[in-house]
From TrEMBL:
InterPro entries from the UniProt entry: Aldolase_TIM, CBS_dom, CBS_dom_sf, GMP_reductase, GUAB1, IMP_DH, IMP_DH_GMPRt
PROSITE patterns: CBS (PS51371)
Protein name: GMP reductase
Active site per the UniProt annotation: 306 (thioimidate intermediate)
NCBIfam families reported in the protein's UniProt record: IMP_DH_rel_1 (TIGR01303), PRK07807.1 (NF005869)
EC number of the protein: 1.7.1.7
The organism of origin for this protein: Prauserella halophila
Domain CBS: residue ranges: 154-213
Cofactor field: a monovalent cation
UniProt catalytic activity: IMP + NH4(+) + NADP(+) = GMP + NADPH + 2 H(+)
Binding sites annotated in the UniProt record for NADP(+): 246-248, 299-301
Family: Belongs to the IMPDH/GMPR family. GuaB1 subfamily.
Pathway assignment: Purine metabolism; IMP biosynthesis via salvage pathway
Length: 482
């Protein structure tokens, strides 16, 4: 990456401060761009979902891995639950989505409670053998008594396919029949998956992030307190593919010793990468790499739920932090993830231009069907999910629930995150895959503007300029006139 001629930043910069200048390009199509990463995390798109309780659970993990990204389960999830989630995610089909399932005897209220859990907007109805007999969508439930049985309103006209049917065939068939949804069945005709027309299309564009036996990949976080080595061993046993050692102040001795402990339990020939953070300086990056990190997580204070900069004055504008840390990591043959502050697809493109191998996204993805929280509606009837920071009173109180009252009270004094925020579901992009589509489309396009067909080439060729607040404002769309 280089700065545009004459653009020499006098101070540190964040994403809004910079822009990418277009280069002469020989790349003919945005589909010619390969978005796979080279950091060993096994992702085919440069997106990692942050280890936040309000964002990263099993549905998110399954959905993101199917599109080539990776979800990091929070350190607050106990090891038995991590093992359970990991084996569940690995049992998911890499192409077909997991259906929401009820029977004809269940009530409309059950379907309404379930339907917001996934983006496909319908519940499959099965018989006692698990064979599909119909589907019920939200529209079919409207104006119907909540205690009515689903057998009375189900649509029996379902399209079923063997799971090895090429997704394109499913896409075309669903289109011909004017339907939205296809159900996948196993050899005995039992329900095993669901594809919407758009997910059949996505299956032809994205490559799932899978392990060496073709199962979906997943990562999990470990804190720096307690026996980090033993926790890492438990996660490895559970089948976790990437370990993330995570704390607010990553450049501290406790992190260095936790990292060494985690490295020491990994077999010498292990391909499981160790990620550690967070830091924002070249020296912090080098120290974590020296202690055993393959990937360093960069970002102090940019997170949407984060109050660290206001509480402490500590942090660093994210674009400069990523650029400096990436340069230090690359000099040692290692990588960085740009963690926090991603609000638009452009921020991901800029993080990659600055040298990150992936961007980590938290709060933005909290406002989707796949995040763990319940779907709620505000006073105007608009859907949202609750989000909160991992250093907020709410998260700290959950993390310290087994401590004695005095310890809990002491720890509750250090609050560096928001306990309750509302992340609206974008009505045009309510599912996390809709957001992934917009991010990957933006990044593919940014690569062709730079004349790059891979993310490494993008970093090499990227030309970045520094802009004023007016320059940034000019780039915003003005949907309602001025
Ligand atoms: N990227 C960011 O900007 C930030 C991210 N977070 C996220 O919040 C979650 C919780 O992390 P964390 O608060 O580290 O909690 P942890 O439970 O991981 O504990 C952190 C440990 O480090 C010690 N410590 C020393 N200095 C600090 C410091 N300045 N801030 C925090 N702990 C310190 C703490 O001791 P003692 O409590 O005795 O001081 C404690 O033992 C993580 O997921 C983290 O990524 C949190 C803040 C900032
Ligand atoms: N200072 C705090 N940082 C937090 C907290 N919870 C999460 N985080 C960090 O934010 C990113 C995600 O950023 P986002 O802008 O996409 O939401 C996450 O990975 C953490 O590093 C917190 O309570 N305090
Ligand atoms: K912030």
């Amino acid at each position: 990456m280089q700065f545009l001629d004459g653009h020499r930043p006098a101070h540190d910069l964040t994403y809004d401060d910079v822009f990418l200048a277009p280069n002469r390009s020989a790349v003919e199509s945005r589909f010619d761009v390969d978005l796979s990463t080279v950091d060993g995390a096994g992702t085919s798109i440069p997106l990692v979902v942050a280890n936040m309780t309000a964002v990263a659970g099993r549905r998110m993990a399954e959905t993101i891995a199917r599109r080539g990204g990776l979800v990091v389960l929070p350190q607050d999830v106990d090891p038995a639950a991590v093992a359970d989630i990991t084996s569940w995610v690995k049992s998911r089909h890499p192409v077909w989505d997991t259906p929401l399932v009820l029977t004809a005897g269940d009530a409309v209220a059950d379907a309404l409670n379930l339907v917001g859990k996934r983006a496909h907007g319908a519940v499959a109805i099965v018989d006692a053998d698990g064979k599909p007999v119909g589907i019920v969508d939200e529209q079919a439930c409207s104006g119907v008594d909540r205690f009515a049985r689903l057998g009375e309103i189900l649509d029996e006209n379902v399209l079923t396919y063997r799971m090895d049917t090429p997704p394109r065939e499913v896409f075309e068939h669903v289109q011909e029949h004017g339907g939205r949804l296809a159900l996948g069945v196993d050899d005995d005709g039992r329900l095993a998956g669901v594809l919407t027309q758009v997910s059949a299309l996505r299956a032809g564009i994205y490559t799932p992030a899978t392990d060496d036996v073709g199962q979906l990949r997943i990562a999990a976080a470990i804190g720096v307190n307690g026996d980090a080595g033993a926790k890492a061993e438990a996660l490895l046993k559970a089948g976790v593919d990437v370990l993330v050692v995570d704390t607010a102040h990553g450049h501290q001795e406790k992190m260095i010793s936790a990292l060494k402990a985690v490295r020491s339990v990994l077999p010498a020939d292990s391909t499981v990468p160790i990620v550690a953070g967070n830091v924002v300086t070249a020296q912090g990056t080098r120290d974590l790499i020296e202690a055993g990190a393959d990937i360093v997580k960069v970002g102090v204070g940019p997170g949407a739920m984060c109050t660290t900069r206001m509480a402490t004055g500590v942090g660093r504008p994210q674009f400069s932090a990523v650029r400096e840390c990436a340069e230090a990591a690359r000099a040692l043959g290692k990588h960085v993830w740009a963690d926090g502050g991603v609000r638009h697809p452009r921020d991901v493109a800029l993080a990659l231009a600055a040298g990150a191998s992936s961007a980590m996204v938290g709060s933005w993805f909290a406002g989707t069907y796949e995040s763990p929280g319940d779907l709620r509606y505000d006073e105007q009837g608009r859907p949202y999910k609750e989000s909160f920071g991992m250093a907020s009173k709410r998260a700290v109180s959950a993390r310290t629930r087994t401590d004695n009252g005095y310890e809990r009270a002491r720890k509750s004094l250090f609050e560096e995150g928001i306990s309750s925020s509302r992340m609206a579901l974008d009505p045009t992009r309510p599912g996390v895959e809709d957001l992934i589509d917009s991010v990957t489309a933006g990044v593919r396009s940014a690569c062709t503007y730079a004349g790059a067909t891979s993310l490494e080439e993008f970093h090499e060729r990227a030309v970045v300029g520094v802009q004023s607040a007016a320059g940034f404002a000019e780039g915003r769309p003005l949907p309602s006139g001025w």
